[in-house]
What we know:
Protein name: Aromatic-L-amino-acid decarboxylase
Keywords: Catecholamine biosynthesis, Decarboxylase, Lyase, Pyridoxal phosphate
Pfam families: Pyridoxal_deC
Structural class: alpha/beta
Largest sheet: 7 strands, mixed
Shape: globular
Number of helices: 13
Helix content: 40-55%
GO molecular function: aromatic-L-amino-acid decarboxylase activity; pyridoxal phosphate binding
Strand content: 5-15%
Organism: Bos mutus grunniens
Radius of gyration: 25 Å
Distance between the termini: 61 Å
Strand order of the largest sheet: 1-7-6-5-4-2-3
Order of helices and strands: HHHEHHEHEHEHEEHEHHEEHEEH
Amino acid sequence: MNASEFRRRGKEMVDYVADYLEGIEGRQVFPDVDPGYLRPLIPTTAPQEPETFEAIIEDVEKIIMPGAASPACTELETVMMDWLGKMLQLPEAFLAGEAGEGGGVIQGTASEATLVALLAARTKVTRRLQAASPELTQAAIMEKLVAYASDQAHSSVEKAGLIGGVRLKAIPSDGKFAMRASALQEALERDKAAGLIPFFVVATLGTTSCCSFDNLLEVGPICHKEGLWLHVDAAYAGSAFICPEFRHLLNGVEFADSFNFNPHKWLLVNFDCSAMWVKRTDLTGAFRLDPVYLRHSHQDSGLITDYRHWQLPLGRRFRSLKMWFVFRMYGVKGLQAYIRKHVQLSHAFEALVRQDTRFEICAEVILGLVCFRLKGSNKLNEALLESINSAKKIHLVPCSLRDRFVLRFAICSRTVELAHVQLAWEHIQEMAATVLRAQGEEKAEIKN
């Protein structure tokens, strides 16, 4: 959709809302559709090819409005999460289907998803231990619980541990910045010998610092054997798994208890939209509360998904509607092409960096992130970053890899082209020349 069409569609939507408000007294206060009405009206999978805006708007009035805001809000989310789960080729255990044990829920952020998973895991292990030993108090169990994540995991994982009141231990990553089985097993054995209770592991697919991938095929079986909740955080990288050539990066997800990624990061869905799949009973059992003012006639019918038991907030937005629009406007093939283009551009930038002997690549380039630096000290690279960001032509965010200050070039704009990447690299080269010249002059002054 170009700017001209966006203006036209935007005006049409304003008219649609205004017409709705003018005619609101003629609409029913409460819908007369029954729970489960929506799924038979929508295909079971996302379209491969793009559809027209007119067709989607027609379906909004025909399919959504009769059940707005409930049950349409709930039922469209269930179907959209199944659409997306099928695009990712997730195991059936994660899909709602007609009457599945799993299912997806849209959280606000990956941080929320990690916290929700941790709290559910904490409840699950506490109930299991108390069932075996009724004399155990919750406090006695809590003080011994231990969660684990790679030393490359996002800071939100550590925050989840703080909020959940459990200790979190960082597992040293390998030479490719990945968590491996041996390091995790060693930590588990050490903590069990000390009388602690391991219960939760976060595996990251596409770390924030360098887009590294924890080894799910190694870590998953250990978690399964030890009875640990395995949460997979693929906040950024998860969007790429809709492409068959990148799906292998998700291998091992069948061992997970919960899986999460953010369509708002790389799948063209506006913020906020964080997709989380989980085994339903483990999650809803942890958060289920039923005060009188929230009870309704269908809550025990098995016909609906009551998302208030799947998340921290009670209120929720109609976030699945924007997923429905994006999936239909682009089609699966359009979304795959978008991901592939970004990956191709990141490799183009990588090639430019490798051609300049002043620079080095610091981590394997797998998706749309390139980690690079000038050969030299951290101070030199800090000066380069400062000069680049101060010029305000492009903006880079750094990271630290094994105590080395590293620059990160992320391909993430919807409209980015090869020409933009080339211009950015030319700018980086110019800034590097200036920084290196200043360093040379500084050394000369010191020598004199």
